[in-house]
Every structure is written in C-alpha cells, then in structure tokens.
Amino acid sequence: MSTIGHIKDLPPKKIGVSIKGDCIAIDYVVMEDKEKVIADICKEASTSSEIYLAPDPDREGEIIAWHIGNEIEKVVKDKSIIHRITYNEITESAVKEAIAHPGKINLDMVNAQQARRVLDRWVGYEVSPILWKKIAKGLSAGRVQSVALRLIADREEAIRAFKPEEYWTIDGDFAHQKAHVIAALTHINKKKAEIKSQKEADAIVAALKKDSFTVESITDKTRTRNPVAPFMTSSLQQAAFNQLGFPVKKTMQIAQKLYEGLPLGNNDSPVALITYMRTDSLRISDTAMGQVREYIGKNFSKEYLPSKANFFEKAGKSKAKTQDAHEAIRPIDVNLSPEKIKAYLPKDAVKLYELIWKRFVACQMTPAQYAQRQVVIESNNGYTFKVTGSTLIFDGYLKVYSEGEEDEKEGKVKIPATLKAKQDLDLEKIDPKQHFTQPPPKYTEGSLVKEMEKEGIGRPSTYATILSTIQARSYTTLDEKKRFTPTELGMMVTKMLVENLPEIMDIKFTAMMEEDLDKIAQGELNRDELLLGFYKGFEKQLTKFAGKDSKRVVEQTEVECPECKKTKLIVRFGKAGEFLGCPSYPECKFTCNFQRTPENKLECVAPAEPLVLDEKCPNCDSPLRQVMGRFGPFIACSNYPTCKYIHKIVAKFPCPLDKGQVVQRSWRGGKFWGCSNYPKCKFAVFGDIEETPCPDCKLPFLVKKVAKDGTVTLLCHDKKCGYKKVTKG
Description:
Blueprint: E1 8-9, E2 17-20, E3 23-26, E4 29-30, H1 35-45, E5 51-53, H2 59-73, E6 82-84, H3 92-100, H4 107-134, H5 145-161, E7 166-176, E8 179-188, E9 191-192, H6 198-209, E10 213-225, H7 233-244, H8 248-260, E11 262-263, E12 270-271, H9 286-299, H10 317-320, H11 338-341, H12 347-363, E13 368-379, E14 383-394, H13 405-409, E15 424-436, H14 445-455, H15 463-472, E16 476-478, E17 484-486, H16 488-500, H17 507-521, H18 527-546, E18 555-560, E19 568-574, E20 577-581, E21 591-596, E22 602-605, E23 611-616, E24 623-629, E25 632-637, E26 650-654, E27 661-667, E28 670-675, E29 684-686, E30 688-690, E31 702-706, E32 712-715, E33 724-727
Parallel strand pairs: 5-6
Antiparallel strand pairs: 1-4, 2-3, 7-8, 7-15, 8-9, 8-14, 10-13, 10-15, 11-12, 13-14, 16-17, 18-19, 19-20, 20-21, 21-22, 23-24, 24-25, 26-27, 27-28, 28-29, 30-31, 31-32, 32-33
Helix pairs in contact: 2-4, 4-17, 4-18, 5-15, 5-16, 7-12, 7-14, 8-12
C-alpha cells in the first residue's frame, strides 16, 4: 500500500516549531487528504502478521516510514512485527533480499530530515513576513533557495560591471608541399604574445611578412582519454540539460517513472528500468559490474573490455560529502538496451533511459586513444607559432557514449604527415583577428546545478525544487537560450537579505550546514545542538532586520517622470509584475513597463498594442480585441468602457450548486472553472475539465489532469465518489 508521499508535516499556517529549554519541539499535523490513506493502511496493518515499511531509501523516505510507523504502532500490539526495509532497485531479487534482511527505522536519518525541515521553516516563516512589509506581499525566502538566487544575482552583478578589453590573435598559414599548416602565434622572443591593439597587431604583421620560418620541433605522443563516471543525480541533471534540453524538474520526473517502472508491452506488469535516481554515489554493485562486463564482452570486440573493472571516486570538496547508501544511477538490466524498449516508452523516457544506459556501459569500457602531434614553428626574428592536432586511433568508450560538442572538436586540426623537423616553411597568409574579453556567462539550469554541487549548496534531491521555486516566485526569468536572469525583484530581495542576514546568505555557511546535516544522519552530531546553535545567531540578526525602518524599500532610477517632471521614477512591484512608477503617487499616477539597456540603464517601454480580431462584439457589434490583463491575455470589446463585454468560455453544464453558468477564469496560478454567480456561489474546479458525466455518480463533468509524459487522468470532482480513470500517453 502506498502512503502517496508524505503523510505528516509542519502545520501550514503556523511555524510549528518551539524551543523548550535545550530541546526542540516539533508539531506535526496530518496533511490534507491523508486521513483516509492513514486509516486504510492502519486497518490492513491491524490484521497483518508482518509489516514492512518501504518508502524511498533516503531522509525523506525515512521520515515517511517513521510517521506511518508511529500510526501503525497505535493499532498493533506486537511492535516487533514492524520492520523497515530499503532497496536501490525495484526488482524481485532486490525486494526479496530486503525482506530477508529487515531492519529498524534509522532515527539518525529521521533527525537529519527534521533538522533540515526546521531550518527551512524558520527561515521561510520568519524572514518572508519581513520581506512582505519592506518590499511586496507574497514574497518568500528560503535557506537554500535564497543562496541559489544569490549565485544568479552575483553573476548578474559581475556581468553588469564587466568592462570588455580588446585583444588580438594572429594565425599564420604556412605552405607545405600541397598542404597547409595553420598555426597560432604564441610567443614573441620567448614571452607570451599579448597583443592589446590594432597598432601592435599591424606592427607584428609587417614584421612577419619580412621574416623566414622553420619547423623547430615536432612532438608525437599518444593521449589517453578515460571513460566518464556513471551518473549520480547532479551529473544526470547536467547531462540531460546539456544534451537533451531537459529542465532539471523534467529529468527527475522521468527518472522517477523509470525507477518505479513502466510497462513494456504488458500494462499489468510495469518493469523497473533504473536504480534509485537520488544519489551522490558513484559506486556500482558487484552484480551490476559483472553483468555489464559480460555484456561488453559479448557485444564488442575484446579490446573494448578492460582487464579489470573501472572504479570511480568523486573529486575535490564533494568527495567528503558523498553518501554511499545507494549506487550510481544505472540500468537495472543492461541487456534491456534502448533499442529493445523504445517501442514501449514515451519518447522522452527513451531519451533519458538511453543516456543513462550508454553512460553506464561506457564507464566500464577501455579508454579512447588519440595520436597527438604538436608542431612548433620559429622565425628568424623570435616569433613562435604552435599548432596541435589529434587523430582518434581507437574509439574505446566513445563507441557508446559521447558528450557532444567537446568530442566533435577533437580531430578537426589536421597536420600533414610528411612535415619534418628543421624544414623551412613559407608564410602564405597572415590572419590577425580582433577580439574582446567576454563577461562571465549567465547560469543555465545545468551550470547552476554544477555550481551548487561544487559549492556544497543543497542536496542532489533538492536541486529541482530549488530551481522551480526561484522561477515561480518571479525572482528570475529564463531567456531564449534558457539562461537565468534575475528580475529587479530578485536583485532587491538578494541585496536586502545579504545586508541584513549575512550568515544565512553566506555560501560557505550554507555548505557547512549541509555537512552538519550529514553528520546528524551519520549519528555524529545532535539534532537539537545544531538547531539551537543556528537559531541563537539567526534570532539576533532577524530582530535587528525586523526592527529597521518599516517603510517599503524602493529602488530609485535615473529616469525622470515624463508627466510631472518633478522627480525620478522608482521600481515598483505589483500583482502583474515589475513596473516603473512616480513616487508622487497619488498626485502623479504615471507608470510604465521598463527594460534594461545594454549600458545597464533602465528605460520605459511602450505597452504592446491590443490585437484587433475579426470577430464582432455580440453586444454592440464593435470589433473584439485581445488585451493583456493581470493574469494573462483575454478577449474584450474594443469599445470599452462604453461596452464592457468580456468573452467567456462557458461550460455546457450548469453549476451543480445553484444552476448558474460555469465559466473559465484566470488567476495567478493559471486557469480554473467557476460559477458566474461568485461570490454568492463559490463552486470552483482548478485545472481543466472534460464534459463527460462521471460513470459512477453522474456528475456532468470530470476533472482532467495531463502528465508530462502524456498520461491522462480523469477524476470525479466529488471526493466521496472517488471515480478515477488513467490512460497512458
């Protein structure tokens, strides 16, 4: 039986955490709609001879097991029949092995999850209200999300402050028999060539035209390129973003389905395809190692199988933080190649499975081998040119897995095989090029995950939630290249938090906190000791922050108000987003949308003109037009305000409560269906509907939910009825 995720959590409308002396008291409440889940599980447990708690094998899974275990203990006399089991893959052998070796709830992991939840609750519930007062309602702060936002904001500050510097490169095209050697100028009189201006470049070009050249040396060697490690959560998220274009959230949703199992022809028997997808380990089990080595031996020639298995370790800071409870992410059965299963799975699931499968097989293959040749060309007057070319002589693991653009660059530089040392060369062409240094790149989801992992911020299992949150809160936007840009709101929130709560916004402090949470999970640190130590400093900063001037913080611009011409416009934050407004409001009511110029200045932009449609208003026969409102576009009469007609999408069935019209409406969270007699009638359905009567209770519609993979779920709106139909995409 499934708990369907967490069953208990902190209360939604109060902090739910209190300090009593040297102890932390946590107030748990049953989550919405979970009473029946708990009751059903406890009913079955009360008549069972053995009970196995088997949620996911991580901290979140452990707290779920602890919560449902506590509920079961209320109805079971013999507590010894309650067992905790975990497994890394949902297969018959793995589940049987877990049942054969049951354990108990790991209270250290429970304590670690509780500590993380309490820390997040303190920061979220105690900082957010201050932001509401000082900036705008509805804002939120988060212990990890705010630090992730800081990374983006700091990068944006660096980009805005960046001043490009000019530099030049010079390539020489040297003739050799019927071939050409193109080499770059690297040194002048043994010093690195640093050319800052066209004047310097022109002088060098003039000197080179009069010079003579000789091949000083040719160095040949074989370069080995070792296989890449199997995936862990963060590297899978990065690779799926870079190679497949998948957002982090989408990657984790598909991976969850691959782990839980998808039908391969038989809808009644889903097959688990990968191991647990929330892991920061690179370990591979002995069974899986033997299976993949056997697969390589059967399907590739013998030079592709190394004499011994390849083992991998994380490098740098992240090595010490590795939790080795799970394996790396790998296919459960390597013999189920992507080709064998692609006919049964949604396209995106095939793509992600193929990525995981190829990376796993490749990690146990032999290295790739390149023949590398470096040519050094010297001139009589001290100019040195160098070129290095590579030729793939054995593909090794690259036969199965390639990382895209970086691999394509290999082998593009060709050096003639007949070239010999001490040969004279003719310089046929000189190619000077002007360049400018580039600012640091904006973060993508992939590069932000990489940076968070490098800095030790958050855990692999939390990255997807963090990235979703900073976008949902309007703190960032994604441009056409899927790069993060902080909004003015995001920049202001970050600046305020860094100034007033420097500790929780400190990257190193946040990373150390993650390490301490790991120590709690390992039984090396007391939960309440960590929490009390954190709150002592946090409370002081919070009190000082809250006690400052209660007036709303505003960002002054250099844009003069075009209406009153008395003052500079300020950045305001409304329900519809950011805009510039006159600080003299309500005397002056000027507002405008705005944008940042390439020179990093704010300027007003005219709002887009409403789109006039061919359709006529049914009330006054004027043309209808599409207008942008607070919650998105809508269609209304162009004769407004004389005619106030607004086009509504009306359902074919009447409101079940008062027989009024059921119309589609918009709000900040999207679309919903509601009674036209609101607020007298509060009938509402959030999401989409299908106007098909419920087969069980005959309600004239069903609630329709479409998952990312195309799976359609139809539900009865009446929870007492409980009708549900799932159609696979």
